[in-house]
């Protein structure tokens, strides 16, 4: 049945598609991009096509992910207090994602760093809270999957700030983003399958 939760699920499935389509297109339009020596956010300040594509990708994905958080995730876990808290932190993270596109690297420091850090910190943090919500709701497989997502999303950053395995942050950004995108798709399908 078509309802608000269905809209949320559709937005969740669309968010990664929008994000990666536009970001990869931005990379393709700037041939000097380096996975080791650049941050993905560098694309947002290259005049012309790269910045336009990057900004559309992040802002569009942020809006869609927020809709998923409010209409899909929150309603799916709304009866659980932990679920509400985890969904709330996830929603704040999606706002931060939107803001990464709006407040690019040329914006007054340290605005871009703050919103970027909020996104990459809050996503794993929300995952850990949601892990507890799923576990307490006897959805153990979903809990362990969500825990794994949170760990994989956080690990590249822990390694980057401890051993500095790459000169810049495009690789840890991408690993975290792909991991979270996979989680969104799996959970969206789960909500859709359950008809909730």
Write a brief caption for the model:
By secondary structure, the protein is an all-alpha fold.
What do these coordinates show?
- With 196 residues, the chain is mostly helical.
- It has one domain.
- Helix content is 77%, strand content 0%.
- The protein has 6 helices and no strands.
Q: Any chance you could write out the topology, listing elements then pairs?
A:
Elements (H helix, E strand, L loop, with lengths): L3 H25 L20 H29 L3 H22 L8 H26 L3 H23 L7 H25 L2
Helix pairs in contact: 1-2, 1-6, 2-3, 3-4, 4-5, 5-6
Report strand %: under 5%
Globally, the shape reads globular
Provide a count of the helices: 6
Helix content: over 70%
pLDDT < 50 stretches: none
Q: Give the biggest beta sheet.
A: none
The structural class is: mainly alpha
Task: Work out the number of β strands.
Answer: 0
| Tally of structural domains | 1
Span of the ends, CA to CA:
10 Å
Order of H and E elements = HHHHHH
Radius of gyration: 17 Å
Mean pLDDT level: 95
Sum up the structure in keywords.
196 residues, mainly alpha, 6 helices
